[in-house]
């Protein structure tokens, strides 16, 4: 596996040096993508990094989008075995596929989900708390599960943020920009941009689709006061990130 | 100029008048309101501690950040929080704003963590953010706990009103803020607002409630639509570190004062500098070429003084269309000059001139006839 090629993304996020303690601890990372440039690969990459064998990091994955088998297949190609990680209590998978929050009301369901996450983290040894990543795939489907109420979802995200303060864990979310782009004020999207400490946007190139370059990533890291931009190409086993003009074709 | 804001909050309210209120607003293009808010908060608290302000205590109503954020912020500015317990209190609307933890504790084995207790001497958790009345009462109670009853005043900082507007209608929030401003123990109040999260009328309501409005704007406006170009990226990068800071003061005598500064965001904090002239801002963006694209001051004045030939001067004289011929100006004979025309000066009192060399004096003056009339098509 080519470690070097993902380094631009790792560098922009501070993941190119040590993995433990988890560099993203206490931070909220928001990924925004579009139909033409899916940002799922960033999610998979962060999941792979957090479950790196050199660390004892834990990932709690809240899946509204795909079943476990889907992520298992993809992460296997990236060199990570989710089944054994799950067995070792390093990977917790919350299957929300039925698009129904458990509970009588959508709000009740989200409260219960929050409670479940809180309980899962509390059960871990205190030393591991800051190495926990809560990953949500994705927010637009969570809104569907909450019967379209972005208010309940924002309340839920607010409580997840308190988890990052309480446990020093990290929160990583994925949302689709073009779902909200028709609105005059895409409030939900803008709220996430304010909430995020690190904003990662996956967009097509200004020149359109291409075979050698699938899109561009813009990483705004508020903590470092730094903005990076580079191109990416998603391959079978790896994602290549490179500065514009440097594609290896 | 940020100094003026801090001074206004420090001076506080006059007897029988509403307390000064500051709105700090921004948008995603220049999201620096938090840095400005933190700066104002730490400045105000320093003056409270030093006894230099009307206000004797500060109540921070925190929705968006945990209480420890503010305690750490003040600690980093050199304030000794432990000994200033009786001058700052934080109403914690962040940790459990809707009472979910209470609900969960009732039904399952949900244990709140003990580290929440660590900040309890300076922070009180508030669990009913949808109820503006209860929020109002809690704030007043906290403030009175700091300064006692009577005539001593305290200040309030709200981070942010966006969360309040999510939980309550704008009329309730407006009434809440207005009541706080009218309370005779409130010295000053300031809040943070992200303008792009709300309709324009909501932002307008909050601005009407404020005596000072500080807004942050990007240094460079991005082109609409295409965010993909490299040029746009360099603008984004530029905008992430710098911005324009506009402040509008509403004075008691009815006058409005508007000031602008430039704001720089560094890792260590925020810096305010005076706005450079327009030319300097654009210097970086103007391509370097071998001829001068700028005007000097004298050139600018001369240009402004030139009376354009078609301009109606409003002084009763008939309009004379100048076509470069001295003869027309005289209005009498035509003087056949074959050579290049003399420099013709327009009648004006300034030093601006239009220097126009006519090719040949033999040309007929422009007539009304259509020159294409003689075409035989």
In a few lines, what is going on in this structure?
Chain B: It is found in: Cytoplasm; Nucleus. The complex is a heterodimer of chains A (249) and B (377). Chain A is α/β, with parallel strands linked by helices and 249 residues long.
- Terminal residue distance of chain A: 18 Å
Query: How many helices of chain B does DSSP assign?
Result: 12
> Secondary-structure element sequence of chain A?
HEHEHHEHEHHEHHEEEE
Q: In terms of quaternary structure, what is this?
A: heterodimer
Strand content of chain A: 15-25%
Topology pattern of chain B, helix = H, strand = E = HEHEHEHEHEHHEHEHEEEHHH
Mean pLDDT of chain B: 80
CATH level 4 superfamily of chain A: P-loop containing nucleotide triphosphate hydrolases
Topology:
The complex is a heterodimer of chains A (249) and B (377).
Chain A: H1 7-13, E1 28-33, H2 40-50, E2 58-63, H3 68-77, H4 82-87, E3 91-95, H5 106-123, E4 132-137, H6 139-145, H7 150-167, E5 170-176, H8 177-180, H9 187-195, E6 198-203, E7 215-221, E8 226-234, E9 239-242
Parallel strand pairs in A: 1-5, 1-6, 2-3, 2-4, 4-5
Antiparallel strand pairs in A: 6-7, 7-8, 8-9
Helix pairs in contact in A: 5-7
Chain B: H1 2-11, E1 21-26, H2 33-49, E2 55-62, H3 67-76, E3 88-92, H4 100-107, E4 123-125, H5 132-147, E5 153-159, H6 161-167, H7 170-182, E6 186-194, H8 200-208, E7 212-218, H9 230-239, E8 242-250, E9 256-266, E10 269-274, H10 278-283, H11 297-305, H12 326-330
Parallel strand pairs in B: 1-6, 1-7, 2-3, 2-5, 3-4, 5-6
Antiparallel strand pairs in B: 7-8, 8-9, 9-10
Helix pairs in contact in B: 1-2
